[in-house]
Amino acid sequence: MKNLKKIELTGGKLTAPGITELAQAFPKCLQLEEISLQDNWLKEQEMSEVIEIFAKVKKLKKIDLSHNEISPKTVLALAKRTTTCPNVTDLQIRADNIIILSSGHSEEIPRSSNVKSREKEKDGQTRKITLR
After folding, report:
1. Are 24 and 49 in contact (CB under 8 A)?
2. Which of 16, 76, 10 is nearest to 43 (CA)?
3. Could you tell me the pTM of the whole model?
4. Cα(56)–Cα(92) distance, rounded to whole angstroms?
5. Which residue, 11, 42, 122, 126, shows the most beta carbons closer than 10 Å to its own?
6. Residue 114 in domain
7. pLDDT of 55-79, one tens digit each?
8. What is the DSSP code (8-state) at residue 4?
9. Residue 84 lies in a domain
């Protein structure tokens, strides 16, 4: 499991004990960059465990939690947590009434010499969260 880079567990019925087991296993996946848990009927309890995974998986870049049963409050908690994880650049949470696509840490593009520079920008990184 040390070399696992991507895990897709989609379209199943993950339960709270299953998420707990995954939360314990993910930190052992030292190269894990992508997690997709789409369409698993995950609820609030399971999502709180998923939130804790983010900090434990150091190379994690992409997370897809689309089409699960979570509230807007939990969606915002997930988005907030990813902003504290330096490598996470892509968080996708799609449902019938909410879409969050978060991307950040884009490569810096040099400014044209004729564009006025803003005052100091925070460490050159951007985060975009789109709510629809």
Report:
1. no
2. 16
3. 0.72
4. 19
5. 42
6. no
7. 778 898 898 988 888 888 888 888 7
8. -
9. yes
